[in-house]
Design goal:
This protein has 237 residues and is α+β, with helices and mostly antiparallel strands. Helix content is 41%, strand content 24%. The protein is globular. It binds coenzyme A. Coenzyme A binds at residues 45, 164-166, 171-177, 199, 203, 205-206, 208-209, 212. Residues 25-237 form the N-acetyltransferase domain.
Amino acid sequence: MIECEYDRTNVEHTCEQELVDFSMVKLRPFREDEVVKVAAMHCDIFPEYFLSHLGQSFMALFYREFVDNGQSCGYVAEYNGELIGFVAGTEQSLLFLHQLYKRNFMRLALLVMYGLLTDQVVRHNIRKRSAHLRFAWRALWKSNRSEDGPPKGLSSPSCSVLAIGVKPQFRRLGIAEKLLSEFSTHIHQKGVQKISLTVLPENTGAIAFYRKCGWHQESHSATSIKYCNNMSINEKS
Ligand SMILES: CC(C)(COP(=O)(O)OP(=O)(O)OC[C@H]1O[C@@H](n2cnc3c(N)ncnc32)[C@H](O)[C@@H]1OP(=O)(O)O)[C@@H](O)C(=O)NCCC(=O)NCCS
């Protein structure tokens, strides 16, 4: 178990009536028996997002892929036995998607069909995911992921943070910063120099957070901003 070495160790902080003893916050990789809780946290933290509308069962299959996986990993922050935040990412985003779709194709397909029948957000946005649907279909049949082009929204097979979130009552306490740092250290120790992520342009809180963590904007489109943390550049400067 990795414990946080918070600068603000033992400082009590009031955040929406929560008193948080930072020495009690622990970071560790999440376990298989916790993927449902992480999925539930994801859906609570990102209620408007397309993937959340596909439901907790869909998200649990997604987060299961980070457990015991040599190239992908996920950490949770735990406080008094409660999971209060998480980060998940992969060294190889295309391989991650290929494996996710290949291993879970039938279950994911059924959950998408259920979403199409029951959820307007899924119905309205499914066309924008057509590249993912094609990628998933090809992943089912092909063992060689290099034959597949990247789905839209994942422009290159890069090392990426795929999700990070902290429960609202535990925000602005340094928890996401520690989660991101833990993930980045793990990835950099494996020899990967550059980590990327994308954020919605309207998500100003997250953008301020990535800037505060020293990440640099790499590209910008109408629908997303790409940030990166490049260790080789950081080391030189
Ligand atoms: C973005 C998020 C993960 C930040 O988590 P957090 O635990 O509150 O972040 P931290 O406490 O580690 O923040 C560290 C610093 O980042 C900056 N920061 C974080 N959130 C910020 C916000 N909403 N507005 C402005 N600056 C912010 C601050 O400089 C902060 O330091 P300070 O509190 O001493 O000023 C959290 O707000 C969240 O879960 N948001 C919803 C999910 C989301 O949008 N995830 C990102 C998707 S790309």
